[in-house]
Amino acid sequence: MRQLGLGLTMAAAGLVMALQTARADEELPIGVIAAQSGSFVSAGNTIVGAANLAAQQINDAGGIKVGDKTYKIKLYIRDNRTDVNVSIAAARELVNDIGVKAIWGTETHDFSVSMAKITGPAKVLQFSGNSSLGAVLDDKAIADDGWLHYTFQSEPQEWQRSGSTAKGVLSLLTPQLKSPPKHSVVFVGNDATGQYLSSHYVKALEAEGQKVDLVQYPPDTTDFSPLLTRIKGMKPDIVHFWYNGDSTLTAFPQALKLGVAPSYFLFGVDPGIYQERSLKADVPVTLSCVPVCWGSSPFPEVKQYFDKYFGLGAAKGPQSSVSLLYYDYFFWYAKALEKVGTIDDPDAVVAELLKSDYKGVVSPVPLVFNKHHQVTFATEVCMVEPNTSDQFKCAVEQPPGAPPPGDNGG
Amino acid sequence: MPMTDNSAGKTGAAPEGARARDRLALLTADNASVPLPAGVQAITAILLAVLLIALPWLGLGYRFLSIAITTLYTAIALYGLGLQFGQAGIMSVGHSALMGVGAYASAILSVQLGLGFWTSLPFAMALSAIVGGVIGPPTLRVGGQHYIIITFCFCALFVIVLTNGGTFTGSATGLDVGSVTPLPGINFDKLSNNYYLVLAALFLALAATYLIGNSRYGRKLRAIRENEQLARSVGINVDLHKLGVLMVSGLFAGLAGVLQLYYLRHISPTLFGAFPSLYLALMIMLGGARYLYGPLIGAVVVNFLPEVLNLDPVDSRIAYGVCLLLVILLLPGGVGAGIKNIYCAIAGESETQKQSGGSNGRA
Q1: Domain ranges for chain B
Q2: What's the CATH fold of domain B58-355?
Q3: pLDDT digit string, tens, across residues A35-52
Q4: Which among A86, A93, A135 has CB closest to B61?
Q5: Rounded to an integer, what distance in angstroms lies between the CA atom of residue A290 and that of residue A298?
Q6: If contacts are CB pairs under 8 Å, which of residues 156-175 in chain B contact chain A?
Q7: Could you say which of A21, A233, B269, B298 is the most buried, measured as most Cβ atoms within 10 Å of its Cβ?
Q8: Tell me, what's the pLDDT at A96?
Q9: ipTM tops the 0.90 cut
């Protein structure tokens, strides 16, 4: 009888503890929409990898303490298959069927814009990396009743990134060339992101005294030799492969074979992947990463981040560094929730994000959202020593204080 | 006796084999001209309508409903392509460009003049029809694969124009629009209402396809499809009818494009490029261009197959390729034909013929 009593007491205690644990571990549903298949897979993988790492670290650290409750992040990851219709269906499912509080993604301007038309009315926060959102994040859109009030751009404004990149590339390449470079060709994919990004980058190069020619290639091009031959005829000092890392990794070896220019810049190609692919050039090549580089960064916290990121099984892609555009914002969002004291007041969370700052891996300086829901941070630019795959010289360039002439900043 | 037995065996096997061959032939034949009983047609139509109307009430979730909307507006465009290809025999692999004409016309009218969904819809449909007619004349001079190449070029050219159209077309970034203007008591921001809007348009497209298919005009189109010279020799104005059907097809595509625009509320050139066009062609061939429900079946298969089987884009393309090969080999009339053939095999062709009314299962 005494044993039975003891057993019942222990069972009751176990039940109480289990219930307490269940109460303590409430779920914070967060959605991730990214291309895990299709043509944008290398960009999409970075979102998923960053989200998995951030959620695991936050949960392992005990979760998010909001008021008297502790929340563990529950990720709902959806593959958009690089298809806008699937992105929309996934957003509807996450917002309406599951009831997520925030969504991270996507990797593409068009998809992010269409998603924002679902997340906005539902008051679900959306963190999208696309700097091209700058074209639509205006006063009206981010107003309390605006359709982008709950959307945040986790990449810096494009004029800032273009400015710091142009400055970094030219300062690294100038000492390597016989004479200071005067003529640049920007080679870019002719799609929404490519057009938007290159419009700012051309202005940034011109502000640095470059004569710039813009050559666009159709998306999904695989044989770049006709266009590269045309570029060679322009006799440029630098060819800037802009925007799409996957396309650049196809085009760059073709350019080397054709001897198109005495120097190159590869945007969106991490030193890590340059090394992995054993790429080599007999001319100076610069690379830039958004925001800091995988494979060469001198910052220990960045190296530590990438060790953990790949340790969790993330794929090594041309733009793995882009994952940082999503990772830090999980912690910032968690911090805002803790401050607001509830997960059910998105307006208060938006207000808190706009007045708070967060120092993460992405930047040594605390991140701050401006009134248009955009952040500011520096760009890391690296140069590969000729005939090597792993000898990098890197520099962090701060963004300019204002857009260059002819760039309205939007 | 054994001889007799053997002989009897042979005699018995021959009709059995012949019957099997007949059955196979019946299953794989293109039975577009075999009429279905009017009762069967009516029951099919009612069941389909009930199913489609009840869909939002089945608790399948927003994801399912979203893909259903995509499927329905795609099917509307396919009904236009079905008339053009299934009835008149003019195939196009640039049909999404006609959808794009409608979508962009509506978006530009919204951005530049502030016109909403309802006011811009007729203009957008009319413009798609006109463009369908404008690219039509080559089909009067060339046919078959030559016209297919022309439509592909039109599609590529259309995307280039949009991508480099500056602020007018929004360039590669595209254009944004607001919600569908609400009707009294109906807010189309609600997904189920948006679904019913697209469904109503689909019913219109179905009805129009049925009426055209069973009209004198439809018979003339089929005469042109089967033998253009003969049709001309019996006094059918082939050129006029070809242009006419291309314009009707454009009208359908324009409607689908505007519905797509107001569903996504953002459009960009990539939505109307070569790949979406090829997918439309794939859907119509899978579903069956000559059958009333063929376009709808094709749209359902292609839109829901990756969802149901959780296929990534590469696997999906492989699956579509395999499906297309199977359809070409086994069901030349498409899945629609296959379903009809199964019915014919079960019911018996003779009985089908006996019971048939004036109309049939084809469009």
Answers
A1: 58-355
A2: ABC transporter involved in vitamin B12 uptake, BtuC (1.10.3470)
A3: 988 888 888 999 999 999
A4: A93
A5: 15
A6: 163-164, 171-174
A7: B298
A8: 94
A9: no
